[in-house]
Structures are given as C-alpha cells and as structure tokens.
Amino acid sequence: MLEIKNLHARVEEKEILRGINLSVGPGETHAIMGPNGSGKSTLASVIAGKSGYEVTKGSVELNGQDLLAMAPEERAAAGVFLAFQYPVEIPGVTNTYFLRAALNNIRRHRGDVELSMTEFMKHIKSKVQMMDMDNSLLSRSVNEGFSGGEKKRNEIFQMAVLEPSLAVLDETDSGLDIDALKVVANGVNALRSPERAIVVVTHYQRLLNYIVPDYVHILMEGRIVKSGGKELALELEDKGYGFVEEELSAKA
Amino acid sequence: MIDLKVTPHSLIENFDLMKGILATYGPDCLQVLREKAFRNYSEFGIPTLKDEEFKYLSLRALEEGRFAPAYGATIDRHQVEQTKVGQIEAITVTFINGEYAPELSSAHVLPKGVFIGCLRDGLTVYEDKILHHLGQIATLKGKLGSSNDERFVYLNTAYLTDGAFVYLPKGVSIEQPIHLLYLTSADHGPLVSHPRTLLIFEENSDAKVLETYLGFDGVYFTNAVTEVFLGESAILEHTRFQDERPESIHIGALSVHQSTDSIYTSNSISFGARITRNDVNVWLDGEHTETWLNGASVAFDEQVVDNHTRIDHAKPNCNSFEVYKSILGDHALGVFNGKIFVYQDAQKTDAKQTNQTILLSPTATINTKPQLEIFADDVKCTHGATVGQLREEALFYLQSRGIPKKEAQGLLVYAFAAEVLEKVTIASVREVLEKALFSKLRSSQELPEQGGD
Question: Which member of B394, B418, B450 has the closest CB to residue A88?
Fold first, then answer.
C-alpha cells in the first residue's frame, strides 16, 4: 500500500531524512519511534505534502501512485490523512462547514455524489458519539479555543469522517492526559480495518499500549535503524534510545 | 438669504425648497436646530482631499450628482422578505427613502414605557427626552482633536425629519432583537435621504439592535446619523449592516455616549455602496465602561470604503477594544483612521486597537492610520496594523483535508472577515451576515458550498 524507497529530504540546507525505506501493507499498523530531531515529523510532513521540505532522492507511493508528484489536496483525495501534531486554529470557519467542504471534495475526486447538509449531518452523527465530542464543537470555529485534548480528538474525528486509506498520526499523544488518550486510541482502533493502513509517529511507548502496532520502527538521524514487532516498543521503554545507539556502534 | 461661501450644489439648493415642509415637522426648536446646522454645513460644503479627515476620500460624485430631496416610493412586504434581512424575526421599524413605513413595520406588545418606532411618533410621547439628547450626542464640541469635522452631521440635522427612535426605561431588557430597516428606492432619479436614529437606553436597560441600510433601485445618497445614549450599566449590542446599491453613496455617522459601567458593542459591516464613509465616535463619560468596536468591510470593483473611528477616554478605568478588518479586491480603496484620545483624567485606561487588511489584487489600496493622543500617564494603549497574506499553515491544513488550494484560499479570505461576524450574538442575524459575506466574496473567490440544503 504505502511504499517509501530511499527517501532523502532536507529543510533548507539541512538534510533530515537520509534514506528511509518503509513498506506498509493494507490492514497494518506501524509505529515509528525515535528521539527528538530524528526526522519523525519530517517524514509525516513529507508524506502529506507540506511545503518547505525538499525531497532530494527516493520515492513515496500509495497504491502505486506517486504521492510526491501530487498537491496536498490530491494526496488527501488519494486517501492520505495526516493527524497534525499541532492542529491549526481557523477562526471564522465552523468545523461543520470545513469538514463538509473537505469530504465533498474528496468524494467528488473519487466520483461519489456530494452530500447535502442533512446527509452530511447523518454521516457524522455516529462519529461524533464515538469520539465523545460535545456537539457544540461542530458549530464552533475549527480548533479555535479548543483544549489540547479537544484538538486531538477533532483530528481523529476528521479522520473518521474522511475515511482515508492511509492515516499518519503525528505525535497524537503529545499533550494528552490518560482519559483523552484512551478516547483518541479507541477512535483510531475503531478505524482499523483490512483496507486501511495506519502509521503512528510517536516519541513514547505510552500510546502504543492502546493502539497496538503490528510493526515498530526506530528512526534515528534520518534512517530507520531497527525494526521489529510490538515488543520492540516495550524494550525501548525499558532501556531508552541509548540501547539502540549502543547496538549500532557495536555493529560498526 | 444665507451668504454661501461654497459652490452651490444640490445638497444646499434643496434647503430652500424643503424649508417650508421641514418646519411643519416637530416642535419649533427643531427648526432652529435645522437652520443653525444648515448654516454650519454651508460654511464648509463638500469636503475635498485637502480636508484632513477626508484626505483619501474623493466626494466629487456628491458635487456633480443632482440629488433631489427624497420622494415617496412603494416597496411591498414581499419585496422586503426577498432581501437578505427579510427573514429575520425581530421588532422591526422600517423606513422607505427616509420616511416611516408602518405597513412594513411590526406591531409588538412592549413592556411599560418602552418605545420602539419612528421619531415623529416618539415626539408625541417623549418630546422632552428626545430634545434633551438629539444633536447633543453627535457633536465634537469641546472635545479634543485639531481636525474635527462634522459637516455631514450638520447636513443631516439641517434636513432632519424622520428616523427610528428607541427608548428603554430604567431596568428594562428586551429579549427580541430590534431591527431598524432603512430601504431606499430611487426609481425616479437620484435622491438624497437623511435618516436620523436615536437610541436612549436608561440605567440598567439592555437590548440588541440591528440597523440595516439596503437599496432597491437607482442612484442615491444616504446621509445617516445615529445617536446612542447609554445610561449607567446599560448594555447595547449594536450591529450596523450596510449593503446599499452599487451606484450609491453612503455616509453614516454613529455617535455614542456611555455612562458609568455601561457596555457598548458596535459591529459595523459594510459590503455595499460605491462610496462608503463611516464615522464611529464613542464618548466615555463614566468610569468602568467597556467598549467593543468591530468592523468588517469588503470592497471590489471601484468601491471605496472609509472607516473613521474615535474613542474619547474622558474618564478613568475604562476599557476599549477595537478590531477593524477589510478585504479589498480589484481597484477598491480602503481607509482606516482610528483615533483614541485619552484625556488627562483618564488614568488606568486600557485601549487596544487592531486594523487588518487583505488585498486580493495589486491594484487595491489601503490607507491605514492609528492615531493615539494620550494626555494621562498611567494607561495601557496598543495599536497594530497588518496588511496581510493568508496564513501558510492554515492553508496547508485545509489542503491536507482535501480542499483544493484556490478553495482553501477563498475559505481563509471568508474566515478573515467571518471572525468579525462572530461577534454578533443574535444567531439569525449572524447567519444572514455570513451568507451576505459569502455571496459578496463569491464573485472573486472560489468558495465551498455553505450550509443549508
């Protein structure tokens, strides 16, 4: 489904990703862990198409389509969803107006009929409940004045509404207390399905207690240095990122 | 005969024609007021770019236009219902070409002592109160400022006939919104009207007022003056929506007098008219008052929209917050001049002023000038002006959700002004304004479909 090959990317003159290889199949959940500055968020941003990153080498494909050649909105239509680490506040646009515009654009792109307001409200009803969201958040401006937890919940809610084939969660656990974390994780788990791939980018193992990954990759200095099953995350939690560094230098 | 120092033009010539009719309206003292105001206006005439307060606003169209005194016109209920504000449920007082239209106004049972109607009827009940405030609020006499210019208030007073009058006695609060609707139909040639609105809110009274200016036909000039008196602890949310015909000229002066502990919110929304000039003057005459001035203007083609505001902090411990935003496209010209005077006694004043503009085309222009004159030493006053680009991170956020770049840009332009509309707490009015903004922007911006089926 998602095929990343030898991906190199830089911001201005600084090379951040230095040859990422990653293959994510449908139905799989992968965790990408790494210390600060290892390139985790850059990887998420490059997949979603944020400007300011220059890909110097390599490829990113989703179901055989070249994502790097697409504008961010085309990637969304192709099935990519990025849950932001810092969701953006947009005063003046209500959540409902925004999300219906997003959904209808994606549907149009896929050749599906657009939803009227009534149909849209029906479509999102169960999702609002699933994310334990206050209905008033729908008529409020996008993320404006939302608490940290509400913002993250809103991200997963959007994901549930847009039903992407690839969801990338960028540090979705940061700033969440345990209750909010559970709600967010439940939301993500409810969206796991045989057709959908999920990539969880995180610094800490905590979130992975609730969203249990099939694979864990450790990212350091712009490369995936170690991959394994879910137990790798526990080992990291136990020993810290230092043990990976030691292993690497032992090999060298 | 008055010795004219300025070039004669229709606004002056009309007076001789009208004098006799004007004199029959209201008590004699009003005629004295008119004559005096006419002399004051005649001394100055139409401003030119050399006049400090009008340095970016060309009003040659006023000089050249032959504006006849407002004549009667017929607009039926169905036509009103078709307008943007036609479905708002409110206590409505309607005027056509400046003249009260009872058939388009609503009858309501009101609490004892409350008056919501036209000035002419108001004079039969509250003559003393009206004469006490009329012309006393819309004046800069004795106030700071070296370039004070009130000629259009004089002009309005010279022709003073009718307009809306609202009186709330002590302690009364009105739940339902009050809608003052000024309609113009110049179907028999260019005309000028001078609507005069007076709102008197006594101690502890509270209401929400929408003042709307809409046009149906033709070329016309609306020269409106609104005076607001807020007694102690009175609260008013006052939204002024101007969506006049594209060939028209709208000059509107709003003057507010705030007493101790009162709270005043002005939402000034300007979408229409070929030339718009808004003056908002707030006089803070008591301590611990709160003032919110919000403005949103959208102009395209050759539209000109000039917003002048002034807040006189005359007493200590008052807070004022001001946010004015403009979206300008094509060859539109915007002006913002925001004066804040802090008088010597007005210690602990807290005043914040912001002016933000988005220019959608390289041929659109904004002239923005904050003007703070502070004569007290223990105050907090800030001001800021930005002429902006859309926020990159917001654009990416929208795109990442599948919204095409052009549509995302349109949405952010919409959001920029819609943020001001959020200050309107009457839901039905806010929705009307959002729809009006949407359709105004739609001609130049790609925008996703709005709500509703």
Answer: B394
Long-range interactions of B147-152: CB distance < 8 A, separation 24+:
B147/B51, B147/B52, B147/B53, B148/B53, B149/B44, B149/B47, B149/B51, B149/B52, B149/B53, B149/B54, B150/B40, B150/B253, B151/B40, B151/B41, B151/B44, B151/B45, B151/B47, B152/B223, B152/B225, B152/B251, B152/B253, B152/B277, B152/B279
Q: What is the pTM of this model?
A: 0.91
Domain edge (last residue) among B336, B363, B388: B388
Residues of A whose CB is below 8 A from B390: none
pLDDT in tens, A167-216: 999 999 888 999 889 999 999 999 999 999 999 999 888 999 999 999 99
How many domains are there within chain B?
2
Instruction: Check whether B3 has a pLDDT greater than 90.
Output: no
Distance from CA of A55 to the nearest CA of B (A): 18
Question: Is A16 an interface residue toward B (CB < 8 Å)?
Answer: no
B151-158 vs B28-44: helix crossing angle, rounded to 10: 140
Contact B416 A92 (CB under 8 A): yes
Global ipTM: 0.96
CA torsion sign, B187 to B188 to B190 to B191?
Answer: negative
Backbone φ/ψ region at B273: left (φ over 0), alpha (ψ -120 to 50), beta: left
Contact B411 A116 (CB under 8 A): no
Please give the C-alpha separations between residue B180 and each of A149, B209, B210, in angstroms, as whole numbers.
44, 7, 6
Among A48, A77, A91, the residue with its CB nearest the CB of B419 is: A91
Which residues touch B435 (CB under 8 Å, ≥6 apart)?
A: B84, B450
Domains of chain A: 2-251 (3.40.50.300)
Whole domain around residue B163: which residue ranges?
A: 10-388
**Residue A102 CA: distances (Å) to CA of A112, A163, A168, A192, B409:** 13, 11, 17, 21, 13
* CA–CA separation, A138 and A124 (whole Å): 10
Buried b (16+ CB within 10 A) or exposed e, B113-138: ebbbbbbeebbeebeebbbebbbebb
Across the interface, do A92 and B397 touch by the CB < 8 Å criterion? Answer: no
Interface check for A11 against chain B (CB to CB < 8 A): the answer is: no
Touching B: A residues 149-168, CB under 8 Å: 158, 162
CB-neighbour burial class of residue B271 (10 A; exposed 0-12, middle 13-18, buried 19+):
buried
Last residue of a domain, one of B335, B354, B388: B388
Closest-CA residue of chain A to B430:
A92
- Per-residue pLDDT reduced to its tens digit, B91-132: 999 999 999 999 999 988 999 999 999 999 999 999 999 999
| Same domain (yes/no): B340, B446 | no
Domain co-membership, B344 together with B362? yes
What is the tens place of the pLDDT at every residue in B14-71?
999 998 999 999 899 999 999 999 999 999 999 999 999 999 999 999 999 999 999 9
Distance of residue A219 Cα from the nearest chain B Cα, in angstroms: 24
How many beta-carbon pairs below 8 A join chains A and B?
101
